[in-house]
Design goal:
This protein is α+β, with helices and mostly antiparallel strands. 34% of the residues lie in helices and 27% in strands. It is elongated and about 85 Å long.
């Protein structure tokens, strides 16, 4: 055991010997520190307040002491004086340490340096901390340790707390936006017998009572579409998805997705909805349309650029989608696999490597090859292309949308064409979903927004781990 921890354990024992319970009790009628600071009125010495928080600094001066306490809204100074709290209480104060949680009550005044301060009539020990805060409260700096000990990261780094409180605020705005447009929030299964709605490798679990394997969902899509069949015409789910894939600054195996479906709409309607939602959030948070992201400045001013997959492929790679030999040459030049890879997937692989990095300001990429969009309606001008868009901002895919395929025989055909390919992980067709489509699903637009990536953009965090409270990490 470290020396400092033993010192704190000794103080813990002394508190108990004094009849003080160091792991506290209910502490009612506290005010947030932010509201206390806002309640100060100059020339008034009778404003009584009651605060609770963690001690972040202590400055003893003989028979007096100053300490700062922090809650999740801010920080305030407290002034402890022997003559005011009495000798016994002042001795108790000497048993406190940085990181302890205390309650303080008294009146507000302003020090000679102009700092609003609580002149304590009394204080209460609420929690004795047994470990010293990192670097004497200058914040936890080691990135990996910050992610492993998010609880310390939150109370030592104010900007981290601000990010997660901002995330909560953004989620409220998203729900309000959708509710105002007549959408209803629903919940669909997180354990599925057949994982569908995306191309991804699932996590597998086992249900003992039924003796069956189940999959953590990779997407809620097929269940949300069942609700369209059932007559729920505007549905959304803010859900957790699980994909058994790599970890990076843009990927976490467990992530949050907002997915919605609107009957009688299409991918053009979804573009309007996406642009309206995101620009509303940007304006709310920044007051304008230019936002920082790492070393970039992103111009979010609407209307956003719209360009087809083929236009961007030609513009950035110099190769036309129709030129299969040219695509093969470009693939080899980029050291991409060509053996057994068809034209559509070659083009998509080149797109990911060459085009995506150029898409800094918001860009709707339209009309992907139909063969890589099995749940999407074909374009009327050419069935080789699908009515799908992906939204890129800061070179990241942030949203994905389709004009949903509601032709049951065509959906059946595409599912069976996919069987046995890499895209078909479990080798099963969701027959119940096909049954649902046969009853008739209205034409619809569908949209998925990667919430974690959206939060990255809106809070200027270039790593997804900075916006997920407890990201998955390698074992120590």
């Amino acid at each position: 055991m470290e020396h400092f921890e033993q010192e704190r354990l000794d103080k813990l024992q002394k508190l108990r010997e004094k009849g003080i319970e160091p792991y506290g009790k209910r502490y009612d009628n506290t005010q947030s520190i932010q509201s206390i600071l806002g309640s100060f009125i100059a020339d008034r010495d009778d404003i009584k307040v009651k605060a609770a928080g963690r001690i972040s600094t202590m400055r003893p001066h003989g028979k007096t002491a100053f300490l700062d306490i922090k809650d999740w809204t801010g920080k305030i100074q407290a002034y402890i004086k022997l003559d005011k709290v009495g000798p016994e209480k002042f001795e108790t104060f000497k048993l406190l340490d940085l990181g302890d949680i205390v309650g303080v009550e008294g009146v507000l005044f302003k020090t000679r340096t102009g700092e609003i301060t609580i002149y304590a009539d009394d204080f209460t020990v609420l929690t004795k901390s047994l470990l010293t805060p990192p670097e004497k409260w200058h914040g936890l700096k080691d990135v990996e340790l910050r992610h492993r000990q998010r609880y310390v990261d939150l109370f030592t780094n104010p900007e981290v707390m601000e990010t997660f409180l901002k995330r909560i605020k953004i989620m409220k705005h998203i729900r309000r936006f959708l509710d105002d447009r007549g959408f209803v929030e629903v919940e669909t299964p997180m354990m599925q017998s057949i994982p569908g709605g995306a191309v991804a490798r699932p996590f597998i679990t086992h249900h003992n009572a039924l003796d069956i394997d189940l999959y953590l969902r990779i997407a809620p899509e097929l269940y949300l579409k069942r609700l369209l069949v059932g007559g729920m015409e505007r549905v959304y789910e803010i859900n957790r998805n699980f994909r058994n894939e790599g970890i990076s600054t843009k990927h976490n195996p467990e992530f949050t997705m907002m997915e919605l479906y609107q009957a009688y709409s299409d991918y053009n309607g979804m573009m309007e909805l996406t642009e309206s939602l995101v620009t509303l959030l940007v304006k709310e948070l920044y007051g304008g349309y230019e936002i920082p992201f790492g070393e970039r400045k992103i111009n979010m001013t609407p209307p956003w650029r719209r360009a087809t997959f083929c236009e961007l492929l030609k513009e950035c790679s110099g190769v036309s989608f129709e030129d299969e030999a040219g695509l093969a040459r470009k693939s080899k030049e980029l050291e991409l696999e060509t053996q057994g890879v068809d034209r559509d997937n070659m083009a998509n692989n080149i797109f990911e490597q060459v085009v995506e990095p150029t898409l800094s300001n918001p860009t709707f990429v339209l009309d992907y090859p139909t063969s890589i969009c099995p749940l999407t309606k074909a374009c009327e001008y050419d069935p080789c292309f699908a009515q799908r868009f992906e939204l890129y901002i800061a070179s990241m895919e942030v949203a994905n949308s389709y004009s949903e395929l509601n032709d049951a025989p065509e959906q059946d055909k595409r599912f069976r064409e996919q069987l046995g390919t890499e895209a078909d992980i479990v080798g099963k067709v969701d027959e119940d979903f096909l049954t649902a489509l046969k009853y008739g699903m209205p034409p619809a637009g569908g949209l998925g927004i990667g919430i974690d990536r959206l939060i990255m953009l809106l809070t200027n965090n270039v790593s997804i781990r900075e916006v997920i409270l407890f990201p998955l990490l390698k074992p120590k």
